[in-house]
Amino acid sequence: MRQRVLRVLAWLLGSVIAAVLLLAGAIRLDQYHLRNQAERLLSDVRSLELRSSGYADARHVIDRWSDEARQPGPCRADWCDAEISLDSFAWGHSAFLAKHQTLIDLYRRIGGRPAHVSASIRVRNNIIWGKSFSETVESRCSGEPFRERFCLTLIGTIRTEAPRRPRFSHPEYEIGGPSGCEGCIAGWVKFTPYANPADVWRLSDINLSCITRWHPCETQADILPSVWKELATQKASERSGTTICSTELALALSRDSERVAAGRLQEPVRGQLGSAAKLEIDEEMKPARLSPEIHAYLNRMHEYWISAPIFAARTSGRYIAFFRTPEDWPQDCMIPVTDGNLRVVREGVAEDWSDHLDPVYLPVGGISPPHIEVRQQLSLPRLPWGL
Protein backbone atom coordinates (compact mmCIF):
# COMPACT_ATOMS: atom_id res chain seq x y z
CA MET A 1 0.00 0.00 0.00
CA ARG A 2 2.83 2.36 0.92
CA GLN A 3 4.58 1.77 -2.41
CA ARG A 4 1.32 2.34 -4.27
CA VAL A 5 0.76 5.66 -2.47
CA LEU A 6 4.32 6.73 -3.15
CA ARG A 7 3.93 5.89 -6.84
CA VAL A 8 0.72 7.93 -7.03
CA LEU A 9 2.34 10.88 -5.24
CA ALA A 10 5.40 10.65 -7.48
CA TRP A 11 3.16 10.52 -10.54
CA LEU A 12 1.17 13.53 -9.32
CA LEU A 13 4.34 15.46 -8.49
CA GLY A 14 5.85 14.63 -11.86
CA SER A 15 2.64 15.68 -13.60
CA VAL A 16 2.60 19.02 -11.74
CA ILE A 17 6.27 19.65 -12.56
CA ALA A 18 5.69 18.71 -16.20
CA ALA A 19 2.63 20.98 -16.36
CA VAL A 20 4.57 23.90 -14.86
CA LEU A 21 7.46 23.31 -17.25
CA LEU A 22 5.10 23.12 -20.22
CA LEU A 23 3.34 26.30 -19.06
CA ALA A 24 6.65 28.09 -18.57
CA GLY A 25 7.79 26.91 -21.99
CA ALA A 26 4.57 28.14 -23.59
CA ILE A 27 4.94 31.53 -21.91
CA ARG A 28 8.56 31.89 -23.01
CA LEU A 29 7.62 30.79 -26.51
CA ASP A 30 4.87 33.45 -26.58
CA GLN A 31 7.34 36.12 -25.46
CA TYR A 32 9.98 35.18 -27.99
CA HIS A 33 7.34 35.06 -30.70
CA LEU A 34 6.25 38.61 -29.78
CA ARG A 35 9.87 39.78 -29.73
CA ASN A 36 10.51 38.23 -33.13
CA GLN A 37 7.42 39.91 -34.56
CA ALA A 38 8.38 43.23 -32.94
CA GLU A 39 11.88 43.08 -34.44
CA ARG A 40 10.44 42.53 -37.91
CA LEU A 41 7.91 45.33 -37.43
CA LEU A 42 10.61 47.72 -36.19
CA SER A 43 12.73 46.85 -39.22
CA ASP A 44 9.78 47.60 -41.51
CA VAL A 45 9.08 50.95 -39.83
CA ARG A 46 12.75 51.97 -39.95
CA SER A 47 12.89 51.14 -43.66
CA LEU A 48 10.28 53.85 -44.37
CA GLU A 49 12.08 57.15 -44.90
CA LEU A 50 10.09 60.28 -44.17
CA ARG A 51 9.40 62.58 -47.14
CA SER A 52 11.11 60.04 -49.45
CA SER A 53 9.12 56.82 -49.20
CA GLY A 54 5.68 56.82 -50.79
CA TYR A 55 2.31 55.18 -50.53
CA ALA A 56 3.49 51.99 -52.29
CA ASP A 57 6.16 51.49 -49.60
CA ALA A 58 3.62 52.07 -46.83
CA ARG A 59 1.10 49.77 -48.50
CA HIS A 60 3.71 47.00 -48.67
CA VAL A 61 4.24 47.20 -44.89
CA ILE A 62 0.52 47.51 -44.09
CA ASP A 63 -0.34 44.47 -46.24
CA ARG A 64 2.41 42.44 -44.58
CA TRP A 65 0.79 43.13 -41.20
CA SER A 66 -2.82 43.04 -42.41
CA ASP A 67 -3.98 40.79 -39.54
CA GLU A 68 -2.63 43.19 -36.92
CA ALA A 69 -3.30 46.48 -38.76
CA ARG A 70 -6.15 48.89 -38.24
CA GLN A 71 -7.06 51.72 -40.60
CA PRO A 72 -9.38 54.30 -38.97
CA GLY A 73 -10.35 55.71 -42.37
CA PRO A 74 -9.86 55.07 -46.08
CA CYS A 75 -6.32 54.21 -47.08
CA ARG A 76 -5.24 55.57 -50.44
CA ALA A 77 -2.33 57.42 -51.97
CA ASP A 78 -3.43 60.92 -50.91
CA TRP A 79 -4.57 59.99 -47.38
CA CYS A 80 -3.78 56.97 -45.26
CA ASP A 81 -3.39 56.37 -41.53
CA ALA A 82 -2.58 52.87 -40.32
CA GLU A 83 -1.91 51.45 -36.85
CA ILE A 84 -0.33 48.07 -36.12
CA SER A 85 -0.55 46.39 -32.69
CA LEU A 86 1.15 43.30 -31.28
CA ASP A 87 0.32 41.85 -27.82
CA SER A 88 1.68 39.16 -25.58
CA PHE A 89 -0.83 36.60 -24.29
CA ALA A 90 -1.05 38.31 -20.89
CA TRP A 91 -1.53 41.76 -22.41
CA GLY A 92 -4.29 40.49 -24.66
CA HIS A 93 -6.07 38.92 -21.66
CA SER A 94 -5.29 41.65 -19.15
CA ALA A 95 -8.94 42.18 -18.18
CA PHE A 96 -9.30 38.53 -17.16
CA LEU A 97 -5.95 38.32 -15.37
CA ALA A 98 -6.62 41.55 -13.46
CA LYS A 99 -9.46 39.74 -11.69
CA HIS A 100 -7.26 36.74 -10.81
CA GLN A 101 -4.21 37.99 -8.94
CA THR A 102 -2.91 34.49 -8.22
CA LEU A 103 -2.79 33.61 -11.91
CA ILE A 104 -1.00 36.78 -13.00
CA ASP A 105 1.52 36.44 -10.17
CA LEU A 106 2.17 32.81 -11.13
CA TYR A 107 2.58 33.99 -14.72
CA ARG A 108 5.24 36.48 -13.59
CA ARG A 109 7.10 34.03 -11.36
CA ILE A 110 7.64 31.55 -14.18
CA GLY A 111 9.08 34.19 -16.48
CA GLY A 112 6.05 35.93 -17.98
CA ARG A 113 5.91 39.67 -18.57
CA PRO A 114 2.92 41.47 -20.17
CA ALA A 115 4.09 43.45 -23.20
CA HIS A 116 2.60 45.47 -26.05
CA VAL A 117 4.17 46.82 -29.24
CA SER A 118 2.56 49.29 -31.63
CA ALA A 119 3.48 51.21 -34.75
CA SER A 120 1.81 53.73 -37.03
CA ILE A 121 2.28 55.08 -40.56
CA ARG A 122 0.88 58.30 -41.99
CA VAL A 123 0.69 59.05 -45.73
CA ARG A 124 -0.34 62.38 -47.21
CA ASN A 125 -0.35 63.12 -50.93
CA ASN A 126 1.65 59.95 -51.75
CA ILE A 127 4.39 60.87 -49.25
CA ILE A 128 5.09 59.33 -45.84
CA TRP A 129 4.91 62.25 -43.39
CA GLY A 130 4.79 60.40 -40.10
CA LYS A 131 5.61 57.13 -38.38
CA SER A 132 5.95 55.82 -34.86
CA PHE A 133 7.03 52.78 -32.89
CA SER A 134 6.36 52.08 -29.22
CA GLU A 135 7.22 49.31 -26.79
CA THR A 136 5.35 48.90 -23.50
CA VAL A 137 6.47 46.21 -21.08
CA GLU A 138 5.90 45.47 -17.42
CA SER A 139 8.80 46.50 -15.18
CA ARG A 140 9.53 45.84 -11.52
CA CYS A 141 6.75 44.96 -9.07
CA SER A 142 6.36 45.64 -5.36
CA GLY A 143 4.26 43.85 -2.75
CA GLU A 144 3.98 40.30 -1.47
CA PRO A 145 3.77 37.42 -3.96
CA PHE A 146 0.30 36.01 -4.70
CA ARG A 147 -1.33 39.10 -3.22
CA GLU A 148 -2.28 42.40 -4.74
CA ARG A 149 0.92 43.87 -6.16
CA PHE A 150 1.85 47.14 -7.83
CA CYS A 151 3.89 46.90 -11.03
CA LEU A 152 5.42 49.76 -12.97
CA THR A 153 5.12 49.92 -16.75
CA LEU A 154 8.17 50.80 -18.85
CA ILE A 155 7.43 52.65 -22.10
CA GLY A 156 9.76 53.61 -24.94
CA THR A 157 8.36 55.61 -27.87
CA ILE A 158 9.71 57.02 -31.12
CA ARG A 159 7.36 59.19 -33.13
CA THR A 160 7.06 62.01 -35.64
CA GLU A 161 6.05 65.21 -33.88
CA ALA A 162 7.18 68.81 -33.62
CA PRO A 163 9.49 69.23 -30.60
CA ARG A 164 7.89 71.42 -27.96
CA ARG A 165 11.22 73.03 -27.12
CA PRO A 166 13.58 72.73 -30.10
CA ARG A 167 17.19 72.37 -29.00
CA PHE A 168 19.84 74.74 -30.26
CA SER A 169 22.09 71.79 -31.16
CA HIS A 170 19.44 69.62 -32.88
CA PRO A 171 16.17 71.44 -33.62
CA GLU A 172 14.70 68.58 -35.69
CA TYR A 173 14.36 66.13 -32.80
CA GLU A 174 13.80 66.15 -29.05
CA ILE A 175 14.49 63.60 -26.31
CA GLY A 176 12.64 63.46 -23.03
CA GLY A 177 9.88 61.96 -20.95
CA PRO A 178 6.57 63.02 -19.45
CA SER A 179 6.69 65.31 -16.43
CA GLY A 180 4.05 63.18 -14.75
CA CYS A 181 3.61 59.50 -15.50
CA GLU A 182 1.75 57.75 -12.69
CA GLY A 183 2.62 54.09 -12.49
CA CYS A 184 5.04 54.16 -15.41
CA ILE A 185 8.59 54.93 -16.46
CA ALA A 186 8.51 56.49 -19.92
CA GLY A 187 10.93 57.93 -22.43
CA TRP A 188 10.45 59.23 -25.96
CA VAL A 189 12.16 60.83 -28.91
CA LYS A 190 10.18 63.11 -31.25
CA PHE A 191 11.52 63.99 -34.67
CA THR A 192 10.17 66.10 -37.50
CA PRO A 193 9.85 64.78 -41.07
CA TYR A 194 12.83 67.01 -41.90
CA ALA A 195 15.18 65.31 -39.45
CA ASN A 196 18.34 63.78 -40.88
CA PRO A 197 17.54 60.14 -41.83
CA ALA A 198 20.78 59.07 -40.15
CA ASP A 199 19.58 60.63 -36.88
CA VAL A 200 16.18 58.95 -37.20
CA TRP A 201 17.81 55.57 -37.81
CA ARG A 202 20.26 55.99 -34.91
CA LEU A 203 17.57 57.08 -32.46
CA SER A 204 15.17 54.27 -33.47
CA ASP A 205 17.20 51.79 -31.44
CA ILE A 206 14.56 50.33 -29.10
CA ASN A 207 15.67 47.46 -26.87
CA LEU A 208 13.19 44.70 -27.64
CA SER A 209 15.02 42.23 -25.41
CA CYS A 210 13.07 43.83 -22.53
CA ILE A 211 10.20 41.58 -23.65
CA THR A 212 12.13 38.36 -22.98
CA ARG A 213 14.58 39.30 -20.21
CA TRP A 214 14.21 37.23 -17.06
CA HIS A 215 15.00 40.27 -14.92
CA PRO A 216 12.85 43.21 -16.04
CA CYS A 217 14.15 46.38 -17.67
CA GLU A 218 13.75 49.22 -15.17
CA THR A 219 14.94 52.50 -16.69
CA GLN A 220 14.61 54.59 -19.84
CA ALA A 221 18.25 53.78 -20.56
CA ASP A 222 17.30 50.08 -20.64
CA ILE A 223 14.55 50.44 -23.22
CA LEU A 224 16.05 53.37 -25.23
CA PRO A 225 19.83 52.84 -24.91
CA SER A 226 21.06 55.05 -27.76
CA VAL A 227 18.53 57.78 -27.04
CA TRP A 228 19.31 58.03 -23.34
CA LYS A 229 23.05 57.99 -23.97
CA GLU A 230 22.62 61.00 -26.25
CA LEU A 231 20.40 62.71 -23.68
CA ALA A 232 23.22 62.54 -21.13
CA THR A 233 25.58 64.16 -23.66
CA GLN A 234 22.95 66.79 -24.45
CA LYS A 235 22.54 67.77 -20.80
CA ALA A 236 26.29 68.16 -20.42
CA SER A 237 26.37 70.40 -23.50
CA GLU A 238 23.50 72.55 -22.22
CA ARG A 239 25.34 73.15 -18.95
CA SER A 240 28.11 74.75 -20.99
CA GLY A 241 25.64 77.49 -22.00
CA THR A 242 25.60 77.01 -25.77
CA THR A 243 22.65 79.09 -27.06
CA ILE A 244 23.42 79.90 -30.69
CA CYS A 245 20.29 80.71 -32.69
CA SER A 246 21.44 79.02 -35.89
CA THR A 247 19.96 79.13 -39.38
CA GLU A 248 18.98 75.47 -38.94
CA LEU A 249 17.03 76.33 -35.78
CA ALA A 250 15.34 79.34 -37.42
CA LEU A 251 14.29 77.16 -40.36
CA ALA A 252 12.85 74.49 -38.06
CA LEU A 253 10.99 77.06 -35.96
CA SER A 254 9.54 78.73 -39.07
CA ARG A 255 8.24 75.35 -40.16
CA ASP A 256 6.96 74.05 -36.82
CA SER A 257 5.58 77.18 -35.14
CA GLU A 258 1.92 78.02 -35.49
CA ARG A 259 2.75 81.72 -35.66
CA VAL A 260 5.77 83.66 -36.94
CA ALA A 261 5.84 87.44 -36.64
CA ALA A 262 8.25 90.35 -37.03
CA GLY A 263 8.44 93.34 -34.75
CA ARG A 264 10.60 96.07 -33.32
CA LEU A 265 12.63 95.39 -30.19
CA GLN A 266 13.08 98.42 -27.96
CA GLU A 267 16.12 99.22 -25.85
CA PRO A 268 16.28 97.14 -22.63
CA VAL A 269 14.83 98.79 -19.53
CA ARG A 270 16.38 98.13 -16.13
CA GLY A 271 13.91 97.10 -13.43
CA GLN A 272 13.72 95.30 -10.11
CA LEU A 273 13.81 91.90 -11.79
CA GLY A 274 16.61 92.76 -14.19
CA SER A 275 16.69 94.00 -17.75
CA ALA A 276 13.68 93.62 -20.03
CA ALA A 277 12.96 94.72 -23.58
CA LYS A 278 9.64 95.31 -25.32
CA LEU A 279 8.88 93.62 -28.63
CA GLU A 280 6.15 95.31 -30.69
CA ILE A 281 4.73 93.05 -33.42
CA ASP A 282 4.08 94.88 -36.68
CA GLU A 283 4.02 92.09 -39.30
CA GLU A 284 2.54 88.58 -39.35
CA MET A 285 4.80 86.38 -41.46
CA LYS A 286 2.90 83.18 -40.65
CA PRO A 287 -0.57 84.08 -39.36
CA ALA A 288 -2.19 81.56 -37.08
CA ARG A 289 -5.17 79.71 -38.56
CA LEU A 290 -7.72 80.80 -35.99
CA SER A 291 -11.20 82.21 -35.63
CA PRO A 292 -11.82 85.98 -35.95
CA GLU A 293 -12.32 86.18 -32.17
CA ILE A 294 -8.87 84.76 -31.45
CA HIS A 295 -7.32 86.98 -34.12
CA ALA A 296 -8.88 89.98 -32.38
CA TYR A 297 -7.28 88.86 -29.13
CA LEU A 298 -3.88 88.52 -30.80
CA ASN A 299 -4.21 91.99 -32.27
CA ARG A 300 -4.60 93.32 -28.75
CA MET A 301 -1.62 91.26 -27.61
CA HIS A 302 0.94 92.76 -30.00
CA GLU A 303 3.42 93.83 -27.31
CA TYR A 304 5.62 91.42 -25.33
CA TRP A 305 8.00 92.24 -22.52
CA ILE A 306 11.01 89.98 -22.85
CA SER A 307 12.89 89.43 -19.60
CA ALA A 308 15.16 86.55 -20.58
CA PRO A 309 18.81 87.63 -20.89
CA ILE A 310 19.09 86.16 -24.39
CA PHE A 311 16.52 88.76 -25.52
CA ALA A 312 17.18 91.68 -23.22
CA ALA A 313 20.85 91.84 -24.16
CA ARG A 314 20.05 92.49 -27.82
CA THR A 315 20.23 95.91 -29.41
CA SER A 316 17.13 97.63 -30.68
CA GLY A 317 15.88 96.94 -34.19
CA ARG A 318 13.48 94.66 -36.06
CA TYR A 319 13.49 90.98 -35.19
CA ILE A 320 11.61 87.84 -36.19
CA ALA A 321 9.94 85.96 -33.34
CA PHE A 322 8.55 82.41 -33.28
CA PHE A 323 5.47 81.34 -31.29
CA ARG A 324 4.79 77.64 -30.81
CA THR A 325 1.10 78.39 -30.28
CA PRO A 326 -0.60 81.71 -31.01
CA GLU A 327 -1.14 82.61 -27.35
CA ASP A 328 2.42 81.70 -26.27
CA TRP A 329 5.25 84.11 -25.67
CA PRO A 330 8.16 84.11 -28.15
CA GLN A 331 10.49 81.14 -28.02
CA ASP A 332 14.15 81.40 -27.04
CA CYS A 333 15.29 82.33 -30.52
CA MET A 334 14.88 85.69 -32.24
CA ILE A 335 16.78 86.68 -35.37
CA PRO A 336 17.26 90.13 -36.88
CA VAL A 337 15.32 91.03 -40.02
CA THR A 338 17.83 90.67 -42.84
CA ASP A 339 17.49 89.52 -46.43
CA GLY A 340 19.16 86.21 -45.61
CA ASN A 341 17.02 85.55 -42.55
CA LEU A 342 13.85 86.48 -44.42
CA ARG A 343 14.68 83.88 -47.08
CA VAL A 344 15.20 81.22 -44.39
CA VAL A 345 11.95 82.06 -42.62
CA ARG A 346 9.92 82.14 -45.83
CA GLU A 347 11.34 78.77 -46.83
CA GLY A 348 10.35 77.29 -43.47
CA VAL A 349 6.85 78.82 -43.60
CA ALA A 350 6.35 77.36 -47.09
CA GLU A 351 7.30 73.91 -45.73
CA ASP A 352 4.71 74.01 -42.95
CA TRP A 353 3.68 70.45 -42.12
CA SER A 354 1.73 70.65 -38.85
CA ASP A 355 -1.55 69.77 -40.59
CA HIS A 356 -0.08 66.50 -41.84
CA LEU A 357 0.21 65.08 -38.32
CA ASP A 358 -2.92 66.11 -36.45
CA PRO A 359 -5.89 63.93 -37.49
CA VAL A 360 -8.45 66.61 -36.55
CA TYR A 361 -6.96 69.15 -38.96
CA LEU A 362 -8.22 68.79 -42.51
CA PRO A 363 -5.26 68.99 -44.89
CA VAL A 364 -4.45 72.17 -46.76
CA GLY A 365 -1.99 73.15 -49.47
CA GLY A 366 -3.42 71.14 -52.34
CA ILE A 367 -3.92 67.84 -50.49
CA SER A 368 -7.37 66.44 -51.17
CA PRO A 369 -9.06 65.13 -47.99
CA PRO A 370 -11.24 62.02 -48.24
CA HIS A 371 -14.94 62.17 -47.46
CA ILE A 372 -14.89 60.81 -43.92
CA GLU A 373 -16.71 61.71 -40.75
CA VAL A 374 -14.52 63.65 -38.33
CA ARG A 375 -15.61 62.51 -34.89
CA GLN A 376 -13.38 64.90 -32.99
CA GLN A 377 -14.30 68.53 -32.60
CA LEU A 378 -11.76 71.31 -32.92
CA SER A 379 -11.36 73.36 -29.75
CA LEU A 380 -10.13 76.92 -29.53
CA PRO A 381 -6.62 77.40 -28.15
CA ARG A 382 -6.28 77.98 -24.44
CA LEU A 383 -5.95 81.67 -23.65
CA PRO A 384 -4.19 83.06 -20.59
CA TRP A 385 -6.18 84.50 -17.70
CA GLY A 386 -9.34 82.76 -18.89
CA LEU A 387 -9.91 85.14 -21.82
Question: What do these coordinates show?
Answer:
By secondary structure, the protein is of the alpha+beta class. The chain has two domains: 22-239, no CATH class; 257-364, OB fold (Dihydrolipoamide Acetyltransferase, E2P) (Beta Barrel), CATH 2.40.50. The chain contains twelve helices and 13 strands. The termini are far apart.
Task: Give a short overview.
With 387 residues, the chain is an alpha+beta fold.
Q: What's the average pLDDT?
A: 77
Strand portion: 25-35%
Radius of gyration: 27 Å
What's the order of the H and E elements?
Answer: HHEEHHHEEEEEHHHHEEEHEHEEH
- How would you sum up the major sheet? 7 strands, mixed
> Largest sheet, order of strands side by side?
1-2-3-4-5-7-6
Count of all domains: 2
Number of helices: 12
Shape: elongated
* Helix amount: 25-40%
List the helices and strands and how they pair.
Blueprint: H1 2-47, H2 55-64, E1 69-70, E2 79-87, H3 89-92, H4 94-98, H5 101-109, E3 115-124, E4 127-142, E5 150-160, E6 173-176, E7 184-191, H6 197-203, H7 220-223, H8 225-239, H9 247-256, E8 259-265, E9 269-271, E10 274-286, H10 292-300, E11 303-306, H11 309-312, E12 317-323, E13 334-336, H12 339-350
Helix pairs in contact: 9-12
Which tags fit this structure?
elongated, single chain, 387 residues, alpha+beta, seven-stranded mixed beta sheet, OB fold (Dihydrolipoamide Acetyltransferase, E2P), six-stranded antiparallel beta sheet
